[in-house]
Amino acid sequence: MCGIAGTLGGEGQAAAEPMIRALGHRGPDGVRVERAGVASLAHARLSIIDLDGGWQPLHAAGATVIGNGEIYNYVELIRDHGLADALATGSDFEPLLHLYAREGEAAFARLRGMYALCLIGADGRAWLARDPFGIKPLYLMQHAGGLAFASEPRAFFAAGLMTRALDETAARQLLDLNYVLDEKTPFQGLRRLVPGEVVEIRDGRIVGGWRNAPLLPPVSPIHGGGGPLAAERAVEEANDGTPRLIPPPPPSALERMVPLPRLAGEAKLLSRLDAVLEDSVRVHQRSDVPYGLFLSGGVDSATIATLMARLNQRPVTAFTCGFDAPGAADERAAAEAVAKALDLDWRETTFGEADFWRVLPHVAWALDDPTADYAVLPTWKLAEAAKGTLTVVLTGEGGDELFGGYGRYRRALRPRWLGGRPAEPRGAADATLAAWRAAAKGPEGLSPLQAAQWADIATWLPADLLLKLDRCLMAHGLEGRTPFLDREVAAFAWSLSDRAKVRGGHGKWLLRRWLERACPAARPWARKQGFTVPVDAWIAPRAADIARRIGEVEAVRRLAGPDAGARMLAEGPMRWRLLFFAVWALIHLDGAQPNDALAAVVGT
Known about the structure:
Elements: E1 2-8, H1 16-21, E2 30-36, E3 39-45, E4 58-60, E5 63-71, H2 74-80, H3 94-103, E6 113-120, E7 126-130, E8 139-143, E9 146-150, H4 154-158, H5 168-177, E10 191-192, E11 197-202, E12 205-211, H6 230-233, E13 235-237, E14 243-245, H7 253-256, H8 266-284, E15 291-294, H9 299-311, E16 317-323, H10 332-342, E17 345-351, H11 353-366, H12 376-386, E18 392-394, H13 399-403, H14 407-413, H15 430-440, H16 448-458, H17 460-474, E19 479-481, H18 487-495, H19 498-501, H20 509-518, H21 535-539, H22 543-550, H23 554-560, H24 564-569, H25 573-588, H26 594-602
Parallel strand pairs: 15-16, 15-18, 16-17, 18-19
Antiparallel strand pairs: 1-3, 1-9, 2-3, 4-5, 5-6, 6-7, 7-11, 8-9, 8-10, 11-12, 13-14
Helix pairs in contact: 8-9, 8-20, 9-10, 9-20, 11-12, 11-25, 11-26, 12-17, 14-16, 25-26
């Protein structure tokens, strides 16, 4: 896990060093910067694999790479492609350089992991790539005749490459949804590489690329697709001269789905699920530094804990966060029951009102690309607690999306006369809802459940849950890993019938059946408490004072108008979103220090 930054083409080579210095929290073990012709590459390292030899930029087979994340199948790539004698390091990224020398861009489809990377080949072509689920972030912008990229937006401001101009459409999406959709960011002129996107850069401009969806086979010659299609490599010039990818017409889901062999009966499904999950957890544990997990009281983290306990001889370290607030859902008792049953080294921390006001400005600072999901708060506290004990943390993100866990999925399957409705965000403005539908649309042939899963995996999973995990852990020098969000797990889950996911009023039916046998202490059929942070109760005593101040924040005034104060006084999710956005805007648009931003909104 690291931070990367750089420039390709143009006149901005000197920008790489201030960019990477701004990302030092992502790589506390050291920084390296290299220039090569019109390219400049920078890497801030958090050492995980090959502690001595894995420094980047890495050079091999005439190519160069910098990357953020982990390539989990590097061991298999070395074995299956006879690379052992060619390697100069033990880095998980070096095999990619040798594969690229042999196969060109087809090598990207072989990667199993979470990554954002820049590769410059011996053929002179430069590539930016992001993993299919969007677990690791990557941002880019055009500048001075070239292109700059980095792991976080703050790098571009630190290097003076862009001004802090708010994209109001993106900010309205944040207030409507808690997150910003697709490639947009809250800053004008800055975009995300979307999950699974691979782009080719020549002379500082995007000249082609494609996108690998996480639930479909990668576009690559090794998967029988004949390589990146001509339509996928084509670009067009937008009105502003920025190249845009022209996506090909999507094939049907049935044409692109990864088929499983026909499995006769539940026992074989459970056996296959066990093998797939154990394999994913095994490769996600590949690390030369201490690892553990975040354990809630839910099915997903209990599943990861069960498999980690199976695969490790020593007790696995697990951290749980509970809430010190009347009426708040607190899953510590459920987590403790799992920890005792699995003999985990269990450690608990709490989150209360004092933590809320202390943590809020620092979370807003870390989320320079924001999500207003209040789950960022306990995630930050867990990262604080784990720092110094762990360097790698496994988590349960993705279990609900892949195995059908959310209540909205069950509603999507019901007929309207039984209360069924599409799994769409409610209360969003028309423009936001239209943008969400465009971003969430999957290929033809999906069932209502699959369509709802696809929508979540395309929208709030990368833009909310994974962004939250990345920023909160990286701010503390921790690497977060998500074994559910693995290509082999996804292929298995996506091939399941709807009935294997949702049955009898329960989501994640097959996963619960597995956990019922593997760790009955997890009580997988118990009613889910839901995850809530009592932010409204903590804000309420100060709401009147905040209402008087919040309209003085320019960004809030522009978006919410004269009604901002009244909306702060009303109960509901907008109260928290406006508070978070006001603090965020003062930090990232006006340049305030985190605690000063909070004081300006809340008072002393």
